[in-house]
Design a protein that fits this description.
The complex is a heterodimer of chains A (116) and B (110). Chain A has strands spanning 4-7, 10-13, 19-25, 32-38, 45-51, 57-58, 67-73, 76-81, 90-97, 105-107, 111-115. With 116 residues, chain A is mainly beta. The model of chain A has no long low-confidence stretch (mean pLDDT 91). Classes of the chains: A mainly beta (116), B mainly beta (110).
Chain lengths: 116, 110
């Protein structure tokens, strides 16, 4: 149980275009989902926290207009990288947490974004 | 935020027990200690979580002393496939944000 999926697993896009990444909790309802970014040889950096039905909370330094997060249901959150540039190339990972009392976070497999 | 400190890297050999210690001096009363494993180009995988004393599951044990200012992840009889980065995190009360530190790169050799 507690499986989180991401789609796509990798994507290549041209500079200036937008890319949407989906994160789904497959066998549980995720009240809270998180989006991380990881550059090569570095640790995960939390970008934003999203709760179902409400606006996402972004970490300091993360542009909310560039990284649009939507958590429309208890099983789906999306991250849209708008007007992508080569410096946005990174490994994007989502995680999901269940209902009250559930302290574990389950991570998706990640999405490799390459902007050319 | 409860910051964690752990060794940057460790080396071991197959069949040995590996202990990775993490310090979290300003852990709060409601915080839990959680360990994740990450392979290259994959999302982190939950290993174990604990609050105090000892927790054991099918893959690891977690030892937490009474003052909870540190914790030790114990991996029994490691194999080559255990080569990965191991992150120690403090899950703050309410189970919300996870702050990842540098992690420990464990390398297991024959």
């Amino acid at each position: 149980g507690a499986v989180v999926s991401q789609h796509p697993s990798w994507v290549i896009c041209k500079s200036g275009t937008s890319v949407k990444i989906e994160c789904r909790s497959l066998d549980f309802q995720a009240t809270t989902m998180f989006w991380y970014r990881q550059f090569p040889k570095q640790s995960l950096m939390l970008m934003a926290t999203s709760n179902e039905g409400s606006k996402a909370t972004y970490e300091q330094g993360v542009e909310k207009d560039k990284f649009l997060i939507n958590h429309a249901s208890l099983t789906l959150s999306t991250l849209t990288v708008t007007s992508a540039h080569p410096e946005d190339s990174s490994f994007y990972i989502c995680s999901a947490r269940g209902g009250q009392g559930a302290y574990e976070q389950y991570f998706g497999p990640g999405t490799r974004l390459t902007v050319t | 935020l409860a910051k964690t400190t752990q060794p940057i890297s460790m080396d071991s050999y197959e069949g040995q027990e590996v202990n990775i210690t993490c310090s979290h001096n300003n852990i709060a009363t409601n915080d839990y200690i959680t360990w994740y494993q990450q392979f290259p180009s994959q999302g982190p995988r939950f290993i174990i979580q604990g609050y105090k004393t000892k927790v054991t599951n099918e893959v690891a044990s977690l030892f937490i002393p009474a003052d909870r200012k540190s914790s030790t992840l114990s991996l029994p009889r490691v194999s080559l496939s255990d080569t990965a980065v191991y992150y120690c995190l403090v899950l703050e009360g309410g189970g919300n944000k996870l702050t990842f530190g540098t992690g420990t790169q464990l390398k297991v050799e024959l």
